[in-house]
TrEMBL record:
GO terms for molecular function: polygalacturonase activity. It comes from Ambrosia artemisiifolia (Common ragweed). Keywords: Glycosidase, Hydrolase. This is Polygalacturonase. InterPro entries: GH28_Enzymes, Glyco_hydro_28, PbH1, Pectin_lyas_fold, Pectin_lyase_fold/virulence.
């Protein structure tokens, strides 16, 4: 029912994440199947020492914002051996939104994504950003198999984000029927409120 409300623009509440873990460390999430999340499926935020492995994540391919795994302002993360079908990015690395991410200054760093496969008709296998105002660095993406997708790897950000993206290594990616293998672009040009700084430019 709530999907009908969403498409009709009458949903009065924010859609929830299927699993959100905050301010935690030494986390292992493995050997589970998650289905039909209303929003981002797995969202560790302000966490460290996180392993997410052997997961199956399935969302309707036309369901917006149903990212598979979104480490957000996290350090020391390993995402491996997962299969994901989504209406958005299979994996998206984030670190806060505009002035709020800048003031928190909690980067995402030391993240490895390997042996992930799946499909997303409108988005990317791995997305970096666009909410990356706390900074993103030291990311390694390897041994992915992306099929029937809009993009393989996408780095996206916007005016007003500030922050930085640096030291990204991408190796051994297999793509089948992917429209744009490597895409650099702006995000959705959205902001949490009117307090964002138009002079805050991201550094890549």
């Amino acid at each position: 029912m709530w999907w009908d409300l969403w498409w009709n623009r009458t949903l009065k509440h924010t859609r929830g994440h299927l699993l959100e873990i905050m301010n935690s460390r030494n986390i292992l999430i493995s050997n589970l199947t998650f289905r039909n999340s209303p929003f981002w499926t797995i969202h560790p935020v302000y966490c460290s020492n996180v392993v997410i492995k052997d997961m199956t994540i399935l969302a309707p391919l036309n369901a917006p914002n149903t990212d598979g795994i979104d480490p957000d302002s996290c350090t020391n993360v390993c995402i491996e051996d997962c299969y994901i079908e989504s209406g958005d990015d299979l994996v998206a690395i984030k670190s806060g939104w505009d002035q709020y991410g800048t003031s928190m200054a909690r980067p995402s760093s030391n993240i490895i994504i390997r042996r992930v496969s799946g499909t997303t008709p409108t988005c990317s296998g791995v997305g970096i950003g666009s909410e990356m105002s706390g900074g993103i660095s030291n990311i390694r993406v390897e041994n992915l198999h992306i099929r029937n997708s809009a993009a393989g790897i996408r780095i996206k950000t916007d005016i007003g984000r500030g922050g930085y993206i640096e030291n990204i290594t991408i190796t051994n990616i297999t793509m089948d029927k992917v429209k744009v293998p490597l895409r650099f672009s702006r995000g959705a040009d959205d902001h949490p409120d009117n307090g964002w700084d138009p002079h805050a430019l991201p550094r890549l």
